[in-house]
Amino acid sequence: MTRAFTRKGEATRARIVVGAAAEIRERGVDEVRLEDVMARTGTSKGQLFHYFPDGKEELLLAVAQHEADQVLIDQEPMLSNLTSWPAWLAWRDRLIERYLAQGVKCPLNGLLGQTGRRAPGAQALVTGLMWRWQAAITEGIRHMQSTGDIAAEVDADRAAAALLAGIQGGVLLLLSTGRIDHLEAVLDLTIERLRAGARTA
Amino acid sequence: MTRAFTRKGEATRARIVVGAAAEIRERGVDEVRLEDVMARTGTSKGQLFHYFPDGKEELLLAVAQHEADQVLIDQEPMLSNLTSWPAWLAWRDRLIERYLAQGVKCPLNGLLGQTGRRAPGAQALVTGLMWRWQAAITEGIRHMQSTGDIAAEVDADRAAAALLAGIQGGVLLLLSTGRIDHLEAVLDLTIERLRAGARTA
DNA sequence: TCAGGTTTGGACTTGCAGGTCCATTTTTAG
DNA sequence: CTAAAAATGGACCTGCAAGTCCAAACCTGA
Fold it and tell me: What is the predicted ipTM?
């Protein structure tokens, strides 16, 4: 089903996705018209529909995919290397820094509500992202348990689930209130708590 | 600036808001047309613009207000009565139950992304909701500290901030993945942790 | 160099949803 | 009872943004 694109074609397609993603991040999903994307990426309507035959919906899905990947890419290699407390703190700082920098613009929040209903695939996409994210955290906890840095009786899965939820909520609150406090509180208290349990182990 | 509405007028206005809210909850903000609201509430376009001169934007804001109020109303009286562990657990159950029941439909998530950008007031509205919510939690923690059920050294503000974030994230994850696990994990682990600290106090 | 494809540009169509308007009915108040 | 104001119904307008179409430019390989 994959259409044949030349190298040039692939490049154009990628340019459109990246440009659309940027536009959406800056102005919000529902404020972005195809024309805006065209203007930004220097493309024509013909091209848009050439590379995304199903139109806006398909483009939005591609953007969501792209943005979802970015989220995890941005946390590498910290995320997949949670093997010591300094590493955990580095990851913590990375998260704070990143979300502080991008401020009120969350690429996925909008896409969740918007695309979520339109494209059935978008839901699965976000779910997949969350799943990968949580898996990485779980693995980090497990590793720390193997070295005795976290108490063995901690349920890694549940702890990771709670932490992921906290992070998502923290970001959500950053989005709506503009304050990073919640995210910080979640990360610091959670890490603190994971450490505390093992002090005696 | 408040226009003069008769009793009948107020009733109609309220009917529109409630109907629109329901419609939005069921089908999502961007899928709801004014006509849908008209059909559901048995009103005409004339009425819509009579009661909401600024059109859709004003209506959406009113809906957001209405929904925000509902969120807290739904948790009363549990939320403002977190004075014993059974009360905390009752609140926990209430949250789980409520969000489990409404499933994938969150009234505010959509409104956040959507209305957030359009109406400047919507942002403030959500912020206010979060603030009230968090304040209630903080007060609950403080009360438990006063009775010695929670350790005095716990920072009530931070703990409440983290918990609120966890709840929001838990709901968000319920929305995107369909699983309630995250919300449960947050609530249970948080409460467990608050209790643990004071066992010896 | 020529023939097949792919890529590109942009004019044109179309549907629809938000918003306007006014004529009619109902209510309120004096 | 009556006049002014509010409530209602629905026809109509309008703009805009998605999507269509096709012709021109371009690559690419034999």
Answer: 0.90
